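Researcher: Structure for this, please.
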Amino acid sequence: MKEKIKKLLFEVSRDSRITTKELGKKIGSSQQSASYLKNSLKSDCLIGNGHVIVDAVKLGFVNVIVGFNYLRAENSLKREVIKELKEMDNIVSIEEGKEGVDILVEYSAKNLSAFNKAHSELIYKFFKRLKTRFVLPIIVNHEYFKNYLVRKFDDEDNILYGDRILRSLSEDEVIILNKLVSKPEESMVNIADSLKIPVKKAIRIKKLLEKRNVIKGYGAILDNSKLEINRQMIFFNFSSEGIKKIDKFVSYALGNRNIVQFVKLIGEFQAGIVVESLKDIETIKEIRSEFPIDDYLIMKSEKIHKKRYVPELE
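Model: Predicted structure, token format:
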């Protein structure tokens, strides 16, 4: 992969709403060249939909990761299941695996009781097609930039779901946030026009949502397979001794350029990481050599089918 493409992928995944003028400066190209390269990558579906990084906890949501395995392996069944899952509003993330786990989904619900009801309904609907592998409520989610794509290292730690202080939103804030989540790369001029409100008001509300840390960034989905990016989700349990080193592991994850996400969990596994690399991934070997790990599960990713952080707000 050419260095300029890697830089562009880094910047767009870091901020999908970046202007082409700023993007050109970041990758050392003219605005016109940066715009052409970005549009070419989007036309080839190498860069997919953007997404607004929303701190769901601040809006009163609980997010839960659930792993599923297919009961039958026909491709037609897989396509059918994924299509139906994508249409479910309370499922905010869907990732297909090629090894370890067949599908990884993330629910977003008002509480664990609401999650349990939604999941029970899903199990009933898919009982001949899917089997639940594990259920893992998220305690806190750390997201990092894709530092493996560039020589520089940005060690920003975007922490989600940890702060339980609720933010009440006005009707206008809900409308703007819903619009941004549904069209993350739409200009504020177009958003204001579609909602028939003044542009300055729309921009002010967006900035306020960012200032209050309801919106914590803007990401983008990459087609990892076409870009030859290896991606794994690794779930693991620390030993009794290892639990004491979990803070050290947070620092380790932050400083590892291939780890793009670290989550603390409740359930069968205590923690999980997402690892991406342009080379073969051997992160688990390094982790096991440095931390006391009792058990682990690796899911090799095939494709990300859906990515958002909260369902549509009412």
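Researcher: Any notable elements?
Model: The chain has a mean pLDDT of 93. The two ends are 43 Å apart (CA to CA).
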